[in-house]
């Protein structure tokens, strides 16, 4: 095994980062000087040198490394904030021969998910934790983290962290090494060449422990976030070496894997075939009762995406549709999404209707209907609309692309303007609901379902606004207004 860091791309990375959206496929998304990039390279190199590419499963939660799966040529799982140790526990227990990596930031590990990491360490789960301590919430724009130093200025401690108000930085290695079970705990720094070589060795040792089934290893990396700490690369390194190491001393806190036997746990009851059967049953009974929709369009699953700016009521619109589906006896799911905060983006939700079980609640592709209340939503989601699908857009705020497909239904209405005329811009989402009613009536519903449509819509709106009588009246008006004011219409030839 080479004792040098090799130039170029290690084999533990994909050759081209195809999973990364957009045109850039060769570079990482991390800021220049970010510790995550250096650490990724050291891990990828270790994975290929140890010959464990096929065995590694990497769990990465929320934080700047949320997109780790773009880069590593291993199996990956993206987890909820702080929950990678819980997910890693499931992975390690269900497939004991896998080498499980939990890759976590300081906000993630030492704040929102702190109990998870403590419990996983105390159980001695067979996993390797790579813990990136950059003393800040990087992804969300530099708020105070549990590891922020006393006196350190952040967005949420603009006069410097005051331990009297917000406590002291949490020393993770010191805490974890109080437990009996962990076999290896070390703190390194991603700064000088010497420190990086120490980190490189620590990564390999931890992965080897997991390979040998010795249990829980954690390596902490004091790491730079030059963007949020507003420093250049040189000052960042100096800050880590002179300030951070005072509070977080480098070194080995536990290293007793050599004395331990490989862990043998009870045989997992996890059975991939059984799970598949449960998730994708071959035949299921329809759950639809007397008021079932009879139109053929509902014979298969219907996937709807609704998108706009936060505050435009896209989530409520989706919720009303879900209520409507529930009232007609469908299986329904409603999945809201707010987008990664630091990087802007639209609020959207997915609604799925089905006469049988729903596999995935996310309308990520092959959508039947797309409702857009702003321009970024059209730009982002038009590609997921299937041939023969329906786009309904707010013509006040959206300009359609010149080359829009002729194979889809397109309905435009001035939803914001109409809502303003009704006296409340907030009813634009229900104006859109009216447009949905019109589209369904004109193109997809049989005579029987048409009879029920308005009553069903009224009931759904009533349930949504059950505690606000005034809002109910306004929204019913908004529904009728939307239904009767379609301004642009394209129907596939
Ligand atoms: C449940 C939940 N709560 C809060 C957030 C917002 N959030 C996204 S990243 C983040 C902090 C990440 O900081 P850290 O773990 O230190 O990672 P870094 O970006 O610094 O590498 C927060 C609070 C979220 N996405 N999900
Ligand atoms: S914000 Fe900080 S942690 Fe995130 S990519 Fe940029 S430098 Fe790295
Ligand atoms: Mg951080």
Summarize the topology.
Layout: H1 35-49, E1 56-60, E2 75-78, H2 84-94, E3 99-105, H3 106-112, H4 114-123, E4 128-133, H5 163-166, H6 172-176, E5 184-189, H7 193-211, E6 217-222, H8 226-229, H9 233-247, E7 251-255, H10 272-279, E8 302-308, H11 314-327, E9 331-337, E10 347-354, E11 367-372, H12 375-381, E12 385-394, E13 409-413, H13 415-421, H14 428-443, H15 447-464, H16 469-483, E14 488-490
Parallel strand pairs: 1-2, 1-3, 3-4, 4-6, 5-6, 8-11, 11-12, 12-13
Antiparallel strand pairs: 5-7, 8-10, 9-10, 13-14
Bound molecules: thiamine diphosphate, iron/sulfur cluster and magnesium ion.
Summarize the structure.
The protein has 493 residues and is α/β, with parallel strands linked by helices. It contains 16 helices and 14 strands.
Instruction: Give the biggest sheet.
Output: 7 strands, mixed
Span from first to last CA?
64 Å
At the fourth CATH level, what is the homologous superfamily of the largest domain? Thiamin diphosphate (ThDP)-binding fold, Pyr/PP domains
Q: Output mean pLDDT.
A: 91
Task: Note poorly predicted spans.
Answer: 284-288
3D structure, described in words:
The chain has a seven-stranded mixed beta sheet, sandwiched between helices. Strands 9-10-8-11-12-13-14 form a seven-stranded mixed beta sheet, sandwiched between helices. About 1% of the residues have low confidence. β11, α12 and β12 form a beta-alpha-beta unit. By secondary structure, the chain is an alpha/beta fold. The protein contains 16 helices and 14 strands. The radius of gyration is 27 Å and the shape is elongated. It binds thiamine diphosphate (TPP), iron/sulfur cluster and magnesium ion. The site of magnesium ion (MG) has 8 residues, from α3.
């Amino acid at each position: 095994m080479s004792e040098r860091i090799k130039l170029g791309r290690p084999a533990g990375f994909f050759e081209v980062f195809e999973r990364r959206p957009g045109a850039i496929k060769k570079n990482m998304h991390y800021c220049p000087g970010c510790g995550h990039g250096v650490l990724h390279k050291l891990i990828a190199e270790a994975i290929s040198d140890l010959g464990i590419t096929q065995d590694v499963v990497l769990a990465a939660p929320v934080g700047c490394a949320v997109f780790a799966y773009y880069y590593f040529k291993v199996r990956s799982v993206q987890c909820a904030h702080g929950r990678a140790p819980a997910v890693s526990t499931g992975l390690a227990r269900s497939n004991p021969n896998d080498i499980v990596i939990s890759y976590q930031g300081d906000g993630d590990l030492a704040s929102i998910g702190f109990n998870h990491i403590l419990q996983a360490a105390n159980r001695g789960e067979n996993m390797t934790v790579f813990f990136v301590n950059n003393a800040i919430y990087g992804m969300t724009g530099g708020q105070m983290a549990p590891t922020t130093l006393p006196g350190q200025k952040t967005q949420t401690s603009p006069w410097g962290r005051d331990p009297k108000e917000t406590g002291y930085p949490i020393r993770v290695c010191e805490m974890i090494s109080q437990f009996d079970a962990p076999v290896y705990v070390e703190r390194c720094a991603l700064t000088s060449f010497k420190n990086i070589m120490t980190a490189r060795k620590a990564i390999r040792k931890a992965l080897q422990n997991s390979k040998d089934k010795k249990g829980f290893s954690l390596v902490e990396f004091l790491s730079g976030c030059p963007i949020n700490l507003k420093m250049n690369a040189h000052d960042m390194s100096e800050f880590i070496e002179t300030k951070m190491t005072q509070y977080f001393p480098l070194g080995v806190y536990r290293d007793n894997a050599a004395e331990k036997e490989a862990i043998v746990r009870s045989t997992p009851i996890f059975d991939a075939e059984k799970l598949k059967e449960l998730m994708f049953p071959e035949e299921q009974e329809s759950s639809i009762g007397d008021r079932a929709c009879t139109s053929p369009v509902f014979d298969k699953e219907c996937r709807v995406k609704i998108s706009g700016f936060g505050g435009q009521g896209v989530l409520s619109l989706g919720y009303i549709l879900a209520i409507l589906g529930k009232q007609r006896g469908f299986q329904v799911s409603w999945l809201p999404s707010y987008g990664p905060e630091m990087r802007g983006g639209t609020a959207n939700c997915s609604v799925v209707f089905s006469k049988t079980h729903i596999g995935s609640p996310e309308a990520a592709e092959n959508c039947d209907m797309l409702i857009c209340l702003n321009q970024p939503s059209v730009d982002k989601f038009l590609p997921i609309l299937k041939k023969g699908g329906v786009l309904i857009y707010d013509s006040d705020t959206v300009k359609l692309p010149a080359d829009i497909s002729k194979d889809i239904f397109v309905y435009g209405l001035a939803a914001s303007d109409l809502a303003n005329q009704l006296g409340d811009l907030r009813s634009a989402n229900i104006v859109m609901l009216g447009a949905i009613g019109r589209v369904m009536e004109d193109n997809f519903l049989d005579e029987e379902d048409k009879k029920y449509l308005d009553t069903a819509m009224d009931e759904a709106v009533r349930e949504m606004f059950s505690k606000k009588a005034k809002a109910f009246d306004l929204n019913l008006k908004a529904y009728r207004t939307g239904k009767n004011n379609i301004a642009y219409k394209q129907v596939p030839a």
